[in-house]
Structures are given as C-alpha cells and as structure tokens.
C-alpha cells in the first residue's frame, strides 16, 4: 500500500514538473516571439509608415463584409498641414502634448475624478503619442497586455522621435471617418481642399470627430458632435500659445 502511494505521489510530482516545464517553455516562446515581432520604432523617425494596424484592420473588415467606402489615405509633410488643424487637434486631444513625456498624469487624474463624480465609465485620457502607438501597431482592444505594449511603445516614440514628427505622423494616420485616414484625405473628402488650406472652423470640425470617427464627422448632425465642435473652437481662441510650438 505504501509503495502504491509513493508511486502515485512520484507520478503526480512528475506530471507537475512536466506541466511547469511546458508552461516555462510556452512563456519563453511567447517572449521570443514578442521580441522578434516588436516594431522597429526608431525607423519611423525618418521613414513614413507604409500602413498602420488600424488601416489594415479596416481593409480586412471591408474585404470580409463587402461594406464600407474604399480606403482613402494620402500622406503629406508636416508643413502641408494647416496650423489651424494642428491647434484644433491639440486642444481637443492633448493640449499639453509639447510639455509632457508621452503620459499626461494630470489628465488621467482628472478623468478618474470625473468618473467618481459622475458615476460613468472614464473618458479617454490618452495622449497623442499613446494614440499613435495604438494606431500604428496595436488594436482598439483595452486588455491589460495591450495597454502594457502601448506604454512601452509610447516611451520609445518619445525617446526616438521629435514632438513635431510624432504630431506629423499622427495627423497623417488618424481616422477622420469610415475609410478616411489622415488630414489630407479628410480635407479633400469633406471640403474639397488640401489640408494646408483648412480654416479654423473646418479644422474644429475635423478635430471634433476624432473621439468617434465612425459616427462623428463634418457631415454629422449629432447634437453632441456639434457641441464638441463649439468647445474646440472656444479652446482654440484661448490657446493661441500653441501656435508658437507648431
């Protein structure tokens, strides 16, 4: 009887060792894969990205469902984007962009404070750099692993790229409507002009669409969207100091 118990105990220990070994091997393989598949962040300091994770996701969804307009995306250099649009996006998304290191802890605290006061889910408090990391290489999901990756990529973007370069890439890849990516495509689609010619009101209309690009755009009649346009316009009139940065 004792021998049987001892043998059973030995077998259980052997199984546990094999399970631990398998788990360790899987973790090591997963880690190695992450290293091999990790984006070369420093390359976008001098090279324009040929595509983004969000653009590829849109193309796959459109191919799968057969619905949605064709992809519209055209890259333009920083100097070919209206200062008004840069200012509108900054006041709408990340007014402290030029002074933080990629993470705006004050904005995160404000978001959490509003959540406690209103009893509603927290609003987005991501900086432009965080949004860019997600757009270029990740997905819209909010799982903890994705957020960790986003934080690392945000740090790397801030380390390797100048602020204007980060803003340039962001304005060229961010979604302004179904299938419409970047300032130039948005300006041509909604206003029939180049991004360099956008005025204050047009810029506010585009910047206000960023929180919900699939439903908010210059053609939208949403009351909430129109109120957001007004908020951005007011902020632009007060935040003229941003023009010295952009």
List the helices and strands and how they pair.
Blueprint: H1 2-37, H2 53-65, E1 72-73, H3 83-93, H4 105-118, H5 128-137, H6 144-160, H7 163-173, E2 175-177, E3 180-181, H8 183-191, H9 200-208, H10 223-238
Parallel strand pairs: 1-3
Antiparallel strand pairs: 2-3
Helix pairs in contact: 3-9, 3-10, 5-6, 5-7, 9-10
Give a concise summary.
59% of the residues lie in helices and 3% in strands. The chain is built from ten helices and three strands, in the order ααβαααααββααα.
* Total number of helices: 10
Strand count, sense and closure of the main sheet? 3 strands, mixed
Q: Major sheet: order of its strands? A: 1-3-2
Bin the strand percentage. Answer: under 5%
Mean pLDDT: 85
- Shape summary: globular
Notable traits:
single chain, 246 residues, mainly alpha, 3-stranded mixed sheet, 10 helices, globular
If you had to describe this structure to a student in words, what would you say it looks like?
The chain is an all-alpha fold. 59% of the residues lie in helices and 3% in strands. It has helices at 2-37, 53-65, 83-93, 105-118, 128-137, 144-160, 163-173, 183-191, 200-208, 223-238; strands at 72-73, 175-177, 180-181. It has a 3-stranded mixed beta sheet, with helices on one face. A hairpin with a 2-residue loop joins strand 2 and strand 3. The protein is globular.
């Amino acid at each position: 009887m004792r021998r049987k118990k001892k043998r059973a105990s030995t077998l259980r220990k052997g199984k546990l060792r094999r399970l631990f070994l398998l788990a360790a091997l899987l973790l090591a393989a997963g880690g190695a894969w992450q290293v091999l598949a990790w984006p070369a962040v420093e390359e976008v300091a001098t090279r324009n990205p040929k595509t983004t994770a969000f653009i590829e996701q849109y193309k796959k969804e459109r191919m799968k469902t057969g619905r949605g307009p064709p992809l519209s995306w055209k890259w333009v250099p920083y100097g070919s984007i209206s200062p008004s649009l840069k200012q509108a996006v900054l006041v709408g998304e990340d007014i402290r962009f030029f002074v933080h290191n990629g993470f705006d802890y004050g904005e995160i605290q404000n978001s959490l404070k509003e959540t406690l006061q209103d009893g509603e889910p927290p609003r987005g408090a991501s900086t432009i750099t965080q949004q860019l990391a997600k757009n270029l290489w990740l997905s819209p999901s909010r799982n903890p692993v994705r957020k960790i990756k986003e934080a690392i990529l945000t740090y790397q973007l801030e380390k390797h790229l100048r602020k204007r370069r980060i803003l340039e890439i962001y304005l060229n890849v961010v979604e302004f409507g179904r299938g419409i990516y970047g300032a130039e495509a948005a300006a041509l689609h909604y206003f029939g002009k180049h991004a360099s010619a956008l005025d204050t009101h047009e810029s506010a209309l585009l910047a206000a669409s960023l929180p919900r690009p699939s439903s908010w755009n210059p053609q939208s009649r949403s009351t909430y969207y129109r109120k957001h346009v007004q908020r951005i316009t007011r902020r632009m009139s007060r935040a003229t100091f941003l023009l010295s940065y952009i």
